[in-house]
Amino acid sequence: MKEQNFLTERRRFLRTLGQISGALFLSTEILPDKLLAQVKESAPEPQTFPGKEKMIVLSRKPIVLEMPPEGFEHFITPNELFFVRNNTSMPELSLKDWKLTITGEVKNPLNLTMEDLKKFKEVESLITLECYGNGRSFFEPKASGNQWKKGGIGTALWKGVRLKDVLEKARITDRAKHVIFDGADEPFTPNSPDFRRSIPIEKALSPETLLVYEMNGKPLPIYHGYPLRVLVPGWGGAASVKWLINITVSDREYDGFYMVDKYRHPLYQTKPGTKLSPKDMFVLTELDVKSIITSPLPESRISGEKIVIKGYAWTGEGHIRKVEVSTDSGRSWHKAKIVRDEGKYVWCSWMYEWQPPQKGYYTIISKATDNRGRSQPILPLWNQDGYLYNAIDMVGVYVV
Known about the structure:
12% of the residues lie in helices and 32% in strands. The chain is mainly beta and 400 residues long. A 5-stranded mixed β-sheet has the order 5-4-13-8-9. Strands 6, 7, 10, 11 and 12 form a 5-stranded antiparallel β-sheet that branches. It has a 5-stranded mixed β-sheet with strand order 17-24-23-19-20, with helices on one face. A hairpin with a 5-residue loop joins strand 4 (100-104) and strand 5. The two termini are 20 Å apart.
């Protein structure tokens, strides 16, 4: 009931502001077969998923799990609290049979085992990963898809090798323009599309783009792509294809379902509720600037002379320059303190000490701005699939 009241309050407040402004595994290599025996999509629906018991279940087929609010207590998200977004079935893979092939516009096609892959220079990188649909439940009118709140995000220490190094060994040709990723996951029905996506060659050759096999010091959990996934920093999670088995270097962008029909965004502003054809939308790439309030929690009752407001902020290809907080419906804004900043592609944590003038109900608002001048809007750009929600964040609280 409290959550429903808060969502109603959020929508009322956004409408008012709009008028004013212009009018969140098991980690051994033997785990896949044991875990999958418990999580098979054809089996009776489990109440929880092994290794992910604390997660909020948004979907069981495919598996979609949202991080609970307590996950935000960790700057580096524990594997057991890291969100899961599958589009297809979770494959059963054995490392001894697994290989990665690199084909297409290359002069030296490769067929790599994990042992081969680990001969490349290993790198570790702290990277924040967010689902393109994170925050979808806050769109009004409702957008289609899993109704994520704030927990479709997490930060982990990833270990692997640079995709650039592997592609250089494969000796890409001058015709190389895009890189297509294909995982071992399969659609649920024969007529459903396979999940494949591509990124431009420039992003593929960026030294920050990785092929990862470890997550927070442990072998990549099956939920997150065991034994290998690509990690495309600053872009939505869909670009970081899991259970990777094939990389195809191509002279063109991939034209499959999950590029042409899904994971697209409007080319122009439309009236909320308007549905566009794919030709009026572009392929999603980098994330937008965003901040969220993680403490206090919505509809909580708090007391004290000083209240500490906490949260996170992140952006796509850039850095967070500032986070501002308002406690008076946006009439005044105050700069928050950046508590921890690990640089590009990692969320930063922030805090603001607030002294309420009196008891009552308050709506706390946060707004982030990045180094390219991009700032969170009052209202999001509505789109039918609910991608890239990044409106100013709001939390209603009672000061008692």
